[in-house]
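Let us walk through a complete example step by step. Step one is to write down the protein sequence. Step two is to encode the small molecule, adenosine-5'-diphosphate, as a SMILES string so that its atoms and bonds are unambiguous. Step three, shown after the inputs, is the structure prediction itself.
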Amino acid sequence: MSSFASSLVSGVSQGLLWAIMALGVYITFRLLDIADMTVDGSFTTGGAVTAICMMAGYHPLFAILVATLAGMAAGMITGILTTRMKIPALLSGILTQIGLYTINLRIMGKANIPLTGINSQIENLFNWQLPFNASRTAVALIIGLIFTAVIIALMYLFFGTEIGAAIRATGNNPAMVRALGANTKNTTLFGLMLGNALVAISGGLVAQQQGYSDIGMGTGAIVIGLASIIIGEVLFPKTNFWFRLMGVAFGSIIYRIVITLILRYSPLKSYDLKLFTAVVVALALWLPYLLQQIREHKARRSNIPSRGGV
Amino acid sequence: MLEVVDVSKTFNPGTVNENPVLKGLSLKLTPGDFVTIIGGNGAGKSTLMNIISGVLFPDHGRVYLGTHDVTYMPEYRRARFLGRVFQDPMQGTAGDMEVVENLAMASQRGSLRGLRWNLKAHQFAYFQELLASLDLGLENRLHAKVKLLSGGQRQALTLLMAAMNQPDLLLLDEHTAALDPKTAQKVMQVTQRVVAADQLTTLMITHNMQQAIQYGNRLIMMDSGKVVLDIEGEDKKRLTVEQLLAKFVTASGNALANDRMLLS
Ligand SMILES: Nc1ncnc2c1ncn2[C@@H]1O[C@H](COP(=O)(O)OP(=O)(O)O)[C@@H](O)[C@H]1O
Ligand SMILES: [Mg+2]
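Step three: the predicted structure of the complex.
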């Protein structure tokens, strides 16, 4: 395979694993209308929990399950801070994220747990032996595809249920949801738990795939999630829920491909990427307002006085 | 049905902005009552509504719905007794969701939400029939996002949602105030119809004296947090806008009845 093609394929497989994180961010950011800063911490929590479970000899899928529960717990803390203690959602997420830094270090016992090299004998999903002779990248691609597809399907089904609809409506109009008899404290709490569960699953898969868990692996995850969502919305504007979820996954894939190509073909280094992503997301979030201003500006220019004033 | 007993509410107590809004207000509705409430701006009408629906809790006094003491019952729990339509057409519906999704959520008011589908096939015909009764063409727009509807259409939809499952009490807070006169008229017709269909006990705040006289079997005037006039039956039917205005002036001791009420 050419180096260009292989960076494409690697971008796609990375994108699929990170897409699960972006789908979690989609739940909080788009459905609940909360910018949930917990994500940077809970992504690492997912990686940390997965790593120690695997080190303890548990099956790598079981490790992901435990990571899911840990992510839910993280979301629950943020949910309690904001719904029961009335701390603004943004600040609640930041507080949980800061607290999780300590907890993640305590879980791992050190800043980095390698899952390859000296620990290469432990079971890893990405060492999966397929009946045909598949490369590591191909295995990553298949695992990412399975997880992302299953999660999108489950999300699509869940948000079509009574509880799912109440969660969606909470981000839209909480007063209406209460008037219709649902407890918006619970819907918000539940949405935060679900979102962070997905984020932790993604963290666990990424840790397995890259072969280590690291205390800094979640830094900037929220921004990457937002970038994926925005790219997805540009790709699939005004479509139904199904396509919006797919859009988030495609957004994540495109984000990864762009990053891989930048690293390969530009002088930018991996530590430049956070600034790059932050700038791109800031510009994208500015865009709707910018377009509105341009429209207003045009309207003002075409509003020519028909007769003199004072 | 509804009983409000000696309810008081002061905003910002103990500050320079202390504002006693309700001062020992009592009110009792019998089943089937359709009560209109008028009163000047800031009389405390919306505050009373908010205390009945659990958005606010009173400082003093009790609120009963049927045999339940709901004084401190959380808003989402007492929702099973209440249907509500607000002044702001945006407030009663979820704009990013479809018409039919909104109706479905309303049909779950009063029951525990679970993992059943929000949209149930067997409800579609019923929803379509409800929408058709509005005569606004909404029956063909089941899957339209509610934010694409006009203010009047949204308000009519909210009304259907509020009246669904026959609430013990229907609360309407100036629900036509934000609409143009023609649309307001239309929404009032719908109101009249849904109230009559199930003989819903209704409390309707309005700033429009004509409306207050024309609709309902009982009229209440509020001023500075108190009921200053309570007329029903034949007495109410014979009432004219001029008489009502005069009563407003004597009751409130305020010669300057506000413009909004005079004009409408
Ligand atoms: N949540 C609140 N906090 C503080 N003051 C309020 C609040 N709600 C209403 N008020 C004040 O209470 C008074 C009565 O308001 P309201 O009940 O809305 O009057 P009405 O609906 O009769 O016009 C007004 O002076 C208003 O500013
Ligand atoms: Mg009011």
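Step four is interpretation. The longest strand of chain B covers residues 19-29.
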